[in-house]
């Protein structure tokens, strides 16, 4: 009995398996989006919506403090798109030449709010109340690396309150950590973005909105190292599109 037909069928089968295994890498692309922690909920939905419109692309989301994400990109971490919670982190990324300046766009706006645990009885109604002796611990993002912290510091300095609040400070690594500190009752009060406070209405309540010295705006850009430039640009355009803006508005973000 000749073994040739069997060998031919085996070879054909092996080729089919090889083609099947190769298909995902040939037709699908991972799009890595590094985004500020405050964008977590909104960008998870935006990512899902983008994938439905672009079935050949998988959106991989990386959330954290904007400055930390920027440093990751500078050090070579994979990223196709960078979305920052303030202009400062994006300016640093631009200076380091890790983003394509021509693709930089402002896509959202936010506000800073002072929050307290939902069951708080301390009657905190304004930043000046944080100077009282009965207020012991106040959280905010670390100003050296977290946009919400920079906005908070600038706002409190304008009111002459920063030194007093800093003395009671519990710096957080990102805005969601600050939110968690307040939600768990580990601090008396904290400063977060308005959109973050809205994530846990049953655990925190807003004492007041805090005026900032600079507008709270979010820029987005394609990275210079992106190997998926067409998909990265398409994602940026989607975030800026009416559908993308409607999703951001659903999570409390305003137009820039």
UniProtKB/TrEMBL annotation:
<keyword id="KW-0479">Metal-binding</keyword>
<dbReference type="Pfam" id="PF13531">
    <property type="entry name" value="SBP_bac_11"/>
</dbReference>
<comment type="similarity">
    <text>Belongs to the bacterial solute-binding protein ModA family.</text>
</comment>
<feature type="signal peptide">
    <location>
        <begin position="1"/>
        <end position="28"/>
    </location>
</feature>
<comment type="subunit">
    <text>The complex is composed of two ATP-binding proteins (ModC), two transmembrane proteins (ModB) and a solute-binding protein (ModA).</text>
</comment>
<feature type="binding site">
    <location>
        <position position="38"/>
    </location>
    <ligand>
        <name>molybdate</name>
    </ligand>
</feature>
<dbReference type="InterPro" id="IPR050682">
    <property type="entry name" value="ModA/WtpA"/>
</dbReference>
<protein>
    <submittedName>
        <fullName>Molybdate ABC transporter substrate-binding protein</fullName>
    </submittedName>
</protein>
<keyword id="KW-0732">Signal</keyword>
<dbReference type="GO" id="GO:0015689">
    <property type="term" value="P:molybdate ion transport"/>
</dbReference>
<dbReference type="GO" id="GO:0030973">
    <property type="term" value="F:molybdate ion binding"/>
</dbReference>
<dbReference type="GO" id="GO:1901359">
    <property type="term" value="F:tungstate binding"/>
</dbReference>
<feature type="binding site">
    <location>
        <position position="175"/>
    </location>
    <ligand>
        <name>molybdate</name>
    </ligand>
</feature>
<keyword id="KW-0500">Molybdenum</keyword>
<dbReference type="InterPro" id="IPR005950">
    <property type="entry name" value="ModA"/>
</dbReference>
<feature type="binding site">
    <location>
        <position position="66"/>
    </location>
    <ligand>
        <name>molybdate</name>
    </ligand>
</feature>
<dbReference type="GO" id="GO:0046872">
    <property type="term" value="F:metal ion binding"/>
</dbReference>
